[in-house]
Amino acid sequence: MNKKLPVSALPLITIFIIVTVFALTAKRWLQEKDIDQMVLVWGNLLLFLVSLVSFMMMYRSLQSSKPKSSVTAMYSGFMIKFFAVALAAFVYIMYAKKEVNKPALIFCAGLYIIYTMFETRALLRTLRQKNNA
């Protein structure tokens, strides 16, 4: 099995780089909006990693000849993302107690939606290319 990262994963990598650079360079703007820079950086990293794992699982399942593998990969990817994000949020909330930075959590929730949209879009593009080949 090919372990290389497919070209269709580039949008996820691009989003990660853009958000990380933004989070590291826009410290003053983030402070004005009361967004914790480190929560944003770590949240972005977590969302990127779980989105990449989910993407790779679905991508490999599309290469399989078994129709069941796509459904299994879809549910597995969802479960991994859901529990990883829920666990990270729980740990952060327990650690921060009353100092929880809600704007940063809302920003990360928006990032979750963005990563999911681009992941789905890349997988659909891959599926269309496979069907046209």
Distance between the termini: 20 Å
Q: Identify the quaternary structure here.
A: single chain
Please report which band the strand proportion falls in: under 5%, 5-15%, 15-25%, 25-35%, 35-45% or over 45%: under 5%
Please mark out the parts with pLDDT under 50 across 5 or more consecutive residues, or reply none.
none
Number of helices: 5
Order of helices and strands: HHHHH
Helical content stands at over 70%
Number of strands: 0
Tell me, what's the shape? Answer: elongated
Radius of gyration: 17 Å
> Could you say which structural class the secondary elements and strand pairing correspond to?
mainly alpha
**Domain count:** 1
Largest sheet: none
Mean pLDDT: 90
Descriptors for this entry?
133 residues; mainly alpha; 5 helices
Outline:
The protein is mainly alpha-helical.
What report would you give on this structure?
- By secondary structure, this protein is an all-alpha fold.
- It is 83% helix and 0% strand.
- The protein has one domain.
- It has helices at residues 10-25, 27-32, 37-63, 67-96, 102-132.
- Helix 3 packs parallel to helix 5.
- The chain is elongated and about 50 Å long.
- The mean pLDDT is 90.
